[in-house]
Amino acid sequence: MGYERILFARPALHDMLFDKIPKEKLHMAKKVLSFQQNHEGVMLRFSDNTTVHGDILVGADGAHSSVRQHLYKTLAKQGLLPKSDTKHMNKGYISLVGTTSELDPADYPGMLEEDSESNLIIGDKKTPYTWVTFTIPGNKICWNVVVQLGLAEVADDQFKSSDWIPQQNKAMMDSIRHFKTTYGTMGDLFDVTPIEGVSKVYFEDMLFETWYHGRTVLIGDAAHKLLPSSGAGAVNAMQDAVILANHLYDIYPTSFENIKQALKGYRDERFDAVKDQYPQSYMAAKLMYGHTFSERVLRHIVFNWTPNSVTQKQLNKNTAYRPQANFLPQAPKRGTMDTIPQNPSRRVREEEQAQINKHAGEVVSL
């Protein structure tokens, strides 16, 4: 691709994004209760009895989006919600994730390397777990333990519990302390990880059909929840934001019809691209986290018999799709892989044409 990867902890990404947003634009601890929309605008009502008005509502509030739930409830009452959007998301795995406190590099060789040292270990027939470790800047180790539901009692107990409390996570952690890593056992890493920083995550997947209605639009996990086995969830969420921003940039004037057309254009441009990712993320989950007999056989076949040319072809296809914000300077192509041409911005084209016409007029007048 021609670009080196940049590695950092997720809180660092949060800080970078927050630094670019004026503080008065951020309103924390706001729980959406409901919203109303019409030809004039959209109004959100929050749990603290405050309201806010705007032209467009973007639901970027995750897999269990309050915006999506309220939108779908309204559409269902009107008979406008597809049956497929009434189904529950599939849950196949549970993951515990954590990041250690700062460690002494002398005790953990490899932590001062320029790049990340990462390891993925798939359990044997008696261990339906996959565990991952990788180093990050700041002399810390991120770890992730994934267990397939239906194959381990401790995982099923976690699934039945709807509440997250550290004691429940500790029970699962205690049962796998003996798992080996390149840094000792998982228990060694658990002991230097603050328990309050350990999170339980469900691996869910669902591709919703309805991404927008009226002045409301969904992006990221609110519109499509992919299994995180291939990193497609975060990547597609960012690509959603870029493409939606491009279509919002082209809205002029901000009439209701133009807004609806922009939201439709965003969904039309993104839906098939996201849909193509689903079988890949599903297959990657089976290869990395699956422990049934058929999944073990599949893993053996794919890891040992798949030609490198097939893997490279899929990699080329995945990396060719690189949408960028039309209203910003474009990142140059540096690598050898092909890229899919960017859809041009109508507004940018009109502004460029206006400049050409203006320049031509000035030349004639001279």
Automatic annotation (TrEMBL):
Family annotation (Pfam families): FAD_binding_3
Keywords: FAD, Flavoprotein, Oxidoreductase
Domain FAD-binding positions: 25-72, 192-272
InterPro entries (UniProt xref): FAD-bd, FAD/NAD-bd_sf, FAD_mOase_fung
Superkingdom per UniProt: Eukaryota
Cross-referenced PANTHER family: FAD-BINDING DOMAIN-CONTAINING PROTEIN-RELATED, FAD-DEPENDENT MONOOXYGENASE ASQG-RELATED
Recorded family membership: Belongs to the paxM FAD-dependent monooxygenase family.
Protein's name according to its UniProt entry: FAD-binding domain-containing protein
Organism: Linnemannia gamsii
Taxon lineage: Eukaryota, Fungi, Fungi incertae sedis, Mucoromycota, Mortierellomycotina
